Amino acid sequence: MSAYSADPKAEHLLRLSDEVGRIAGTLARLSAETVSEGPDDGDAVIDPEVVMSVIRARRMRAYFLNGDLFADPAWDMLLELFHAELSHRRMAVKHLTAGAAVPATTALRWLTTLVEEGLCSRRDDPLDGRRVYVELTRKGEQSLRQYFAKLNPTPVI
Hints:
The chain has six helices and three strands.
């Protein structure tokens, strides 16, 4: 049961968000098959600022519209991980789930799905057993590079 269970509208929006996420995952898999048949843009050079501008634009929506309408934690996490990769930064699970702008349990559930899909992986911090880092796998990085290469020059969020 969600932390928002007292509000039926919020619960309904969360269920819709989960369903949209599942549909988006299916569409992403289908489009990845299509994209992979074309020219390989997996080695395209992507400016981290382009990715950050997409992240900022997605967050800005909440200033003008109800943010619950746009919950897409898996995509938000992939964008954060891709930006971290391009910026040569490591991303701890704690920071990644915070960046998803959903309850931590929802973000962790989506993180498990992303790992199962082979798009990212978890790594224990060898210096601090309490910390776990998340990074894109080669498949995840290549998929996002292809996406942003095809998107250029006009990003669509």
